[in-house]
Amino acid sequence: MLTLGIDIGSTTSKCILLENGERIIGTELLVAGIGTIGAEKIMETVLKKAQLSRDDIDYVMATGYGRRNFDPAHGELSELSCHAKGVLFTNPQVRTIIDIGGQDAKVLRINDKGVLENFMMNDKCAAGTGRFLDVMANILQMPINELEKRAELSEIPAKISSTCTVFAESEVISQLATGETVENVIAGICNSVASRVAGLAKRVGIKEEVFMSGGVAQNGGVRKALEKELKVPIKWSETSQMMGALGAAISAYEQEKKRGVLNE
Amino acid sequence: MLTLGIDIGSTTSKCILLENGERIIGTELLVAGIGTIGAEKIMETVLKKAQLSRDDIDYVMATGYGRRNFDPAHGELSELSCHAKGVLFTNPQVRTIIDIGGQDAKVLRINDKGVLENFMMNDKCAAGTGRFLDVMANILQMPINELEKRAELSEIPAKISSTCTVFAESEVISQLATGETVENVIAGICNSVASRVAGLAKRVGIKEEVFMSGGVAQNGGVRKALEKELKVPIKWSETSQMMGALGAAISAYEQEKKRGVLNE
Ligand code: SF4
Fold first, then answer.
1. What is the separation, in whole angstroms, between the first and last Cα of chain B?
2. What is the CATH number of domain A1-91+239-264?
3. Above 90 in pLDDT, residue B165?
4. What residues of chain A, 100 to 139, have a C-beta less than 8 Å from chain B?
């Protein structure tokens, strides 16, 4: 059985092609594929590479921001449950997922049956999200992916007392003006994101293993700061952006199998 | 009896010279007089203009951010109570004070005895403070005091859905890019500050009369938006920045009078 999971985000679309609910036979990511045009394109690409056509796919499950407007889909599911399912598939021991994206942060708690038990989300405040890092990288005139390396060189992370992105921006500017090293300031910036998200995580309740996903998971500075704050090791993966699509493809498989059983 | 009230803020110092607790005989404001150097200077200026020396003053009361480090003071009092006292002196019917400063916002409820009964403050988030307006004026490349005039020309205020300063900044940029008029965007910006502060005010409880102070009180766009939100007329005064110093001078008088009575 072939199923396809597609995660239509606000800035990227991701697609996973799955065989029998367990073997990934195609994967694709498209940045800036805004709306469902990007999603259609990415689906065609993944099919073409696998030398398949739409008719070969038993079930297409959509998730993410644009999931409701994607005609080729047979069903749609929330990001949260798809994301959790994808992470559990690749890392069955995970019980807490910390997802820091470009504009929001979420913490998901999963029980031993693999069911989403509790979650909290911040999508109202730029502090503790990727946007905080963007703002700071902009002040520092530095590409965002350089923050990690530089943070590692810090001796004593600068203390940024404001949580607010706007007030922290002024703090950072004045720290640099008074001679604080860029490395220490960057480490302070990573700590700030970590401490904000740790607050969210503590309210949800941390249970090991902890997995980090979302764009900010790629930033070792924040990841390590979070490990310190929460006093637990944090797993992550370079393909964590694909977890939603993977979860959707698995759900599609489960859905289709259930239908098969009912029709027997 | 001569008393002096001095309000030592983070960016401005203000000073009021009071005769017998009721007649203002000197007033001075100094911008960017950071620390107590500015405060000493402003005190000397007010005394000199009134042809008085320090020894002529019966009591000096300090308030504001830097009040604890001002040697010439005989006593110190919190901004909140001085501010309330100053407003009540000039506007005895006031029961609610909405103070929006450059970095914070406060709402004070005063009971019929003139005592501060309840208050709430936001000094953690730039939204709903003067800083929000600064950020927006910067995007619009417009001096902050131009916002009022331009807001008045708006036909349909733009709807800014994000509360967060950082997210609202992106919204404003994209609204301007998609052809929204600057006037409507500015009116939307004023509404955003007003609705955030109105939330604070509603939690404290509004009772008329309502008085607005702080730097943002000078911005008619925000003031009128607040009137609409709260459905009450809002008083204000061009000298509202002096209220803390005035309250301090009145408290100095009360203090000194009490001491006089005790010593009689
Ligand atoms: S605290 Fe700062 S970053 Fe957070 S919502 Fe307020 S303005 Fe935005």
1. 16
2. 3.30.420.40
3. yes
4. 103, 124-126, 131, 135
